[in-house]
Records
---
Amino acid sequence: MAEAAETARKSIGARRNPQSADAILEAAEAVLVEAGYAGFSIEAVARRARAGKPTIYRWWPSKAALLLEVYQRGKRVEVPDTGKLDDDLVGFLKNLFFHWRETSSGSVFRSLIAEAQSDESAALALAGYAAGRRSHTGEIIERARARGEIAAGIDAALVADLVASYAWRHLLTNQLDEDEATLRRMVGYLLRGIEAR
Amino acid sequence: MAEAAETARKSIGARRNPQSADAILEAAEAVLVEAGYAGFSIEAVARRARAGKPTIYRWWPSKAALLLEVYQRGKRVEVPDTGKLDDDLVGFLKNLFFHWRETSSGSVFRSLIAEAQSDESAALALAGYAAGRRSHTGEIIERARARGEIAAGIDAALVADLVASYAWRHLLTNQLDEDEATLRRMVGYLLRGIEAR
Amino acid sequence: MAEAAETARKSIGARRNPQSADAILEAAEAVLVEAGYAGFSIEAVARRARAGKPTIYRWWPSKAALLLEVYQRGKRVEVPDTGKLDDDLVGFLKNLFFHWRETSSGSVFRSLIAEAQSDESAALALAGYAAGRRSHTGEIIERARARGEIAAGIDAALVADLVASYAWRHLLTNQLDEDEATLRRMVGYLLRGIEAR
Amino acid sequence: MAEAAETARKSIGARRNPQSADAILEAAEAVLVEAGYAGFSIEAVARRARAGKPTIYRWWPSKAALLLEVYQRGKRVEVPDTGKLDDDLVGFLKNLFFHWRETSSGSVFRSLIAEAQSDESAALALAGYAAGRRSHTGEIIERARARGEIAAGIDAALVADLVASYAWRHLLTNQLDEDEATLRRMVGYLLRGIEAR
DNA sequence: TGCTAATCGAGACGGTACGTCTAGTCTTTTT
DNA sequence: AAAAAGACTAGACGTACCGTCTCGATTAGCA
């Protein structure tokens, strides 16, 4: 999140200037953190990055594209591999919530979801991204399946969907501070059900 | 969604004119349906309702407040009571998805969630509303508990949270067309777990 | 400029309430003094007078009418009668400038002239008022004529017009602080001309 | 006052587009002529000029600035030089009254004076402009002084002030149709005085 | 004495304009 | 060819006032 160089950037010839791209992405992140999605405008980003608006529009056709790239620049959430499905899922959610809470990622992803509600391209981008992540999350399930922890015929994608849904909703409603016990209980319900037996 | 009377509405004294309120709410709904959240502006609502902007701002301090009231005007989703938790939950989700898909409610609620990402008051309003709905959904669980279908110590609110999360995510990602089988499978995971036993 | 009574004024039957009229005129004057013509709105007057807007519109059909009455409530400018035309005119202008400078009259009259540039009725009202005042000012000239100070065939109205013009322009350009010497010189030009003889 | 080209104006790079400036000034003049000062709003000008409001505000910080430039675009009034002060002054007033009466200049200047009564910046602009014009008018007097027509010690600026005052007042009270005889009489008073001798 | 009629404060109404902000496009100049 | 710079049209933002309207309360004068 370092500031752009003092001297104004100039064109470096007939090709994309990576300094500008960086400055824009960093400015976008900073604007989002400082002013929130409400204050996130291309104008504001251009102002902060000392870039021209057309430079932004040339490389990112929409706010969504910019948001998506900012999000993807953020560090990945670690996916634990403890050998037990419970702990993997709880650990994953803990990491994810922490990541969303303590870095700019939460703001960025929230904004991306919000943007997707009014911008078709954002919706598509989000759908694509989510699909990728779901398969990613699905790995935890698949590993458990390989270990024989999962009943036959379980749809890993559907389980991943449920877990992701829970995470999304807590992100969107500012409830990223759930304690581990609650996460563990939730995972328990999912693994062992809630029915009396 | 009937059009307002031809004659211009006037003041009816030093108190709110319900005709104007109705016209504004209907216009808000119509704008949202026709132009989506992207085209949902106070100006557009005022234009369509043949109302002055100050009349809108007088009674609804923010877009969020207007959205919330539009959503609450929508008919309630029926909460089934079949005597079996599976069927209740599947039926509830089916009804909810149908309601969101086939009426304006889906657009409205999506917009409300999006708005809550940039507007503090919308976030509060949404939190309040969601709390109310969650306890509502929790009733299904509580009824099941009363029938002895639920294991001891299950947190009904947490289960309701999971179900609502699933619904929200499908709303936000334009996936309200899940077939009953998928819903049933999902509910099955929740009730009986996914672990091998 | 005493404040209205604490208790709210009510109707006193099917006739004009002089208390309200007074309160409105005083409020109009106060608003004009404190906020200038730019801040002079019927709303502001109604607010300050604790009066309903229709009460104002009922009795004064336009801002101009209100301004005119406020101006006419102001104390008259003394027209001196020293027996010498020079001193009468200089004294009159001194009194007028002082009156405009030190009371609210200046603001009010300026506003009236400004209003007359966009409001036909204000223009008419102003024309009528100015005619009355001109004949008034003309008296100074006529008295001088009676004393034989004036050459034969002089058009008193035209002279009054010139004097009033000078006063207006100084009012409109915030130059009401001319010293007596300048006024005396100006009057001297008018009385004895500027040609070399 | 030709209409703007059919095709929408675009930016011509990072500098002011003179086509837009022209269109705005012409529109301002047209609005003033057609709707008067009462109907003269930035919105109306922008609408008529097919310009964005920010484009207007970017170059003219206030209505006053716009009015002033519109006025200055108007053709200059010819200042006659007949060799006789009487004729010069009468001719100048005749030209000025004609100019104000028959072109849009009258409306514009009236509006400017009105605006100056509520807008500080307009007052300043007007003061600056008037100073320039007064020295301009003073030239007539100075020429006469050079010819020896004027008595010693006469303050040319003060005379110019008187003449301008007369013109202003007639503009502001819709009395621009004075016949030449009246003007000549007025100038006569100023040159030769009104006292009996 | 009870009724009528006009007045009062109050404030909502549909509108228009304000001055600012952003969107997304455009062109010029510089590298 | 791509960069910055910033102007361009367009239109939404939330607020202030406009002039009109309807209300409920008030009170004088007429019946």
---
Amino acid sequence: MRRQKEPAKNISIKHVAKLAGVSISTVSRVINKNSAVKGKNRTQVLEAVKQLNYQPSVFAQRLATGKSNVVALVIPRYEGIFYSFYALELIRGIGTLCEALKLDLLLHLTDTKTSFNLKGVGGIIFADLIGNKHQLEEALGSGIPTIVINNYVDHLEVNCIAIDNAGGAKNAVKYLIGLGHRLIAHISGDLITQAASKRLEGYEAALKENKISLPAEFIIKTDYSRGQARLAAEKLLKLSRPPTAIFTASDSMALEVMAVARELGVRIPEDLSIVGFDDNPSGLYGPVALTTVRQPLIKMAQESVRELSLLMGGTKKPITKKTILPTELIIRESCQSVSSSKN
Amino acid sequence: MRRQKEPAKNISIKHVAKLAGVSISTVSRVINKNSAVKGKNRTQVLEAVKQLNYQPSVFAQRLATGKSNVVALVIPRYEGIFYSFYALELIRGIGTLCEALKLDLLLHLTDTKTSFNLKGVGGIIFADLIGNKHQLEEALGSGIPTIVINNYVDHLEVNCIAIDNAGGAKNAVKYLIGLGHRLIAHISGDLITQAASKRLEGYEAALKENKISLPAEFIIKTDYSRGQARLAAEKLLKLSRPPTAIFTASDSMALEVMAVARELGVRIPEDLSIVGFDDNPSGLYGPVALTTVRQPLIKMAQESVRELSLLMGGTKKPITKKTILPTELIIRESCQSVSSSKN
DNA sequence: CTGAAAGCGCTAACAA
DNA sequence: TTGTTAGCGCTTTCAG
């Protein structure tokens, strides 16, 4: 077994300067790639840096410059939202881009109540806003560059990037209507999230536009969980006049609906058409590939980091920019024209 | 629309001292809850802090003390591992505990090649080790408190917390054997991960212990993805002498096997018994609840933070501690005694 | 092009 | 109990 070394005596800029035979300011200049330091001195410094394996102290740098390259990602610790494909995609997207841009990613799983410590953070990304609007306002008040994703915020002057949830949902339902469906049910996500409520909105808009009016029981509200999706599916399919199509607010719920249908002997897509939302790869498997609404999660995540880094750089004028990313209907096998059904 | 405020002129310890009519050291003392500052001064300082909404600069503090409460979580950016229930559970567990302990969580999605900047980090948690052992060695060399989770590391003097993957797998297979099964196949995860290879080991150990020898095609290696699980299941179920039971290295793969079985008209558990690994809540749904091996992911995550914080506090002597957490077989409905099968 | 020196905001001896 | 002061390691004028 190898022994863990004692903390290496921290080598500072002074040591480098000494070894290179120059002043510390010269060292500082070369490690900051600033002005041109003369050839000889430059190489000597570089040499010393390498030899000593010198790494500048980020704290001293930040103290001196007053700048920080720390990005805080704030995610409400909300069960439903965090247990999803969505959360992981977001973290992946943001994490990898931060890594590439040499930004430090601080993960903040907030309980929405506490006001966190903003000191030392160079930029903030709010992923969703669920009962923590005050945290956003606090952040804005502090003057730290901030951006909100997956939530369109219109009453505050803050950059945000959201998905066109309403549009995506509407499109999906219109597709179903185009297939001849009229009895289209919706299993919504947790309406506390903007995404879920917008999807519901889109669903309703598509129906209204086509003058379709449905009984209230065709809309079932859930918390995004598979358990509640199952309950909803059972309720829907056992209706005396069941829907011929179901649009769910997430793919994992759609998958659950499929499972219930199969158990009940309801064939997909012959007897029931299903459209999900997410384009979760899981939807590809199973006997019938799921038709779904693809949302550019990774793009949203990465875009947010890119924008934020610009804001943090201070190069960009803080013109408030609100973006809505389009969705795309991915047609696979879980839907069928209602006329071709032998129902 | 509200305007975003200009960066508030940073109020420092000096301002507080001035307002409170004391020296900065007194202020420092009270914010550090150190020695008892006399009643009057204390209240005045507290008052000033509140009035000015003062928050100490973490950078200055760290510079001065040389200590950092930043915990870096290093996760190899490895597709298979990151796209899982597992990853999210880990992040959740670690994230929430860090939040509670007031530790800053730095997320590091590493590509296993680069050697990252260790400066400014107070402690490190390696989640899995996949081709980044050199990063671990580097961390150890730097003297920063480090802990490895989900990987038993025996050739280095480092604390680690792992799951008893071999034991869990062995138990699962023994359970199957106890049910009368002999033709037990295994769909493994990506053997680049220790978890997957240990589970395979456990599977083999159980067979060996019971003197069961099976053809090589009863073990199929995958990358943990549902796609490969599907392929594996199809291959297995179409064998001229197919298995009566399948043990998979993850629940999501088990679920996929179930789906394939259903499509092929293979009944579960009558014709085929299935055991997964993870205790992923998704296993609860679907027509047949999945029997699985529960692993204490959240516990492992939280334990790691707790241990690390002790190490970082320096209170605890660095006695290397290697922990293996037990698993638990959760028996649900996806297995049946082979004799009661009407095969 | 380079060095000296003044901080950045805070902590921790050391005095008082 | 409190204040003074010397750094922590680095950046950044300002001279040279």
